[in-house]
Fold this sequence. Notes:
Elements: H1 3-26, H2 31-49, H3 51-60, H4 66-127
Helix pairs in contact: 1-2, 2-3
Amino acid sequence: MQPIAQIFTVISILVFFIFIVMKIRKGVMDYKYALVWICLGLVTLIFSVFPASFAFIARKIQIAMPLNLLFFLGILVCLAFIFTLITSLSKLKRKFYILTQKNAILDKTVNELTYKIDRLEEINGGVE
């Protein structure tokens, strides 16, 4: 890798880290997702500073070209991230379903109590 490309990659990753920290401070991103992105950024930073280590790993696990290893790891990371998002979405869907049911029960209770209050007011209004 050319030195200019390495410098550009390092600066890009540092800007990315600043972006992630800003998102965490604003409360836009959860820590568990930010941790994944920070870990990916650190791995990318290590491989951009030491590109020969990536080629060495590709040779050791008998992958012909380091680029093939990069694509393979990228696909694995995407699949893992999609799985995590689907799991979180399923939990939120379940919580939303329960919350909707509780809201309906509370709404029914409020309507029943309002009806009883109205009836009591009618009865008390006629007595006075």
